[in-house]
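hey
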């Protein structure tokens, strides 16, 4: 008697092969075997996923949102039947709430800022602060820092969150207002929206009254005078420039220094088979994050070109001179470092100092003009941005 694999696969239903009845024990064994084979085959297949991703920034044309739209499109192509649902500007959760939801397995992914995450875990302030990473190439070294590796381990151990990597906020983070904020004195007594607790220290050092607020609440607050100005990225300012037409930057990361982390709930992640995990991780790490770095750089260049001004008396984006930046640096002093240390456990203090050392060393070793980002062909990415009509 000659039997095929297909014949034995039918044993579980019939108990017969080529007209010959098999003993019950053999029938059961074959049925179990074919079931195991089916399970193995299933484990080799990509699982369609539905991912809810929370981010506390505006929708496109914000560059981070454009990157997430790219992720949305590519996820459906890489894993057919999958869907990425995007929630911007606190539409579903704030960043601290999203971290808690992921820890409990009630949310799949978050694209959050380290500074805003500090509301849930004060250690996340370790890598926040202006005037530290001051070149694009230095920012490209961020994921290699020992401080970042430590925080990734902390996310996993304390929050049950796996961090894929980090993304750039605008390199030209700055201050927007209804009038030009050109010196520390211009900040005095003004109510300025802060992006997170670490930025409060800088604003206070410059004489402002910091107000922590999600971005979705900022436009009406500016319109009604609840706020006098805001700290944000070029992308964020571009969405509120009618309410805050004057935007001031102090070089790369001169006013604000903060970065995105992109993470997933380990409870959700553990339910995916390995091929699906590998496909998502490869997509995020090798495609989405490199794309985000490029689109962020190109957005900065695009907005600077469109709205930049050399006359501080006129609306638009004004880049402070070296002398003007120095005045801000002198007024800031070590206020951010002192604040971070006063608001973190004692065993985090050495990490605060380590990040300052790593950031300054990276900036010195990787000056302007040494990053591949600065060579990006932004014309090839122009179609991702709104076109002039």
């Amino acid at each position: 008697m000659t039997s095929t694999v297909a014949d034995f696969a039918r044993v579980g239903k019939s108990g017969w092969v080529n007209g010959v009845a098999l003993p019950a024990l053999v029938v059961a064994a074959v049925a179990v075997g074919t079931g195991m084979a089916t399970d193995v085959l299933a484990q080799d297949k990509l699982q369609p996923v539905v991912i809810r991703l929370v981010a506390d920034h505006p929708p496109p044309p914000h560059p981070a949102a454009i990157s997430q739209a790219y992720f949305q499109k590519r996820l459906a192509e890489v894993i057919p039947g999958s869907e990425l649902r995007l929630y911007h500007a606190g539409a579903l959760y704030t960043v601290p709430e999203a971290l808690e939801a992921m820890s409990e397995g009630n949310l799949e992914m978050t694209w959050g800022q380290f500074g805003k995450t500090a509301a849930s875990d004060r250690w996340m302030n370790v890598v926040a602060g202006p005037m530290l990473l001051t070149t694009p190439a230095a920012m490209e070294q961020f994921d290699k820092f020992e401080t970042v590796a430590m925080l990734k381990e902390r996310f996993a151990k304390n929050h049950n969150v796996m961090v894929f990597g980090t993304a750039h906020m605008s390199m030209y983070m700055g201050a927007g207002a209804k009038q030009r904020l050109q010196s520390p004195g211009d900040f005095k007594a003004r109510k300025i929206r802060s992006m997170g607790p670490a930025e409060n220290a800088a604003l206070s050092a410059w004489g402002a009254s910091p107000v922590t607020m999600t971005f979705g609440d900022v436009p009406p607050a500016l319109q009604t005078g609840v706020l006098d100005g805001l700290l944000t990225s070029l992308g964020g300012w571009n969405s509120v420039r009618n309410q805050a037409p004057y935007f001031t930057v102090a070089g790369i990361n001169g006013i604000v220094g903060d970065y995105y982390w992109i993470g997933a709930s380990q409870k959700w992640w553990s339910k995916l088979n390995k091929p699906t995990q590998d496909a998502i991780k490869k997509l995020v790490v090798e495609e989405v994050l490199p794309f985000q770095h490029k689109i962020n750089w190109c957005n900065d260049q695009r907005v600077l070109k469109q709205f930049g001004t050399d006359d501080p008396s006129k609306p638009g984006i004004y880049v402070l001179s070296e002398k003007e930046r120095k005045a801000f640096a002198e007024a800031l002093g070590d206020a951010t470092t002192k604040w971070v240390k006063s608001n973190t456990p004692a065993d985090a203090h050495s990490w605060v100092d380590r990040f300052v050392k790593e950031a300054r060393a990276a900036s010195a070793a990787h000056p302007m003009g040494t990053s591949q980002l600065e060579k990006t062909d932004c014309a090839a990415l122009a179609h991702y941005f709104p076109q002039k009509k």
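The two ends are 77 Å apart (CA to CA). The CA atoms of residues 41 and 342 lie 55 Å apart.
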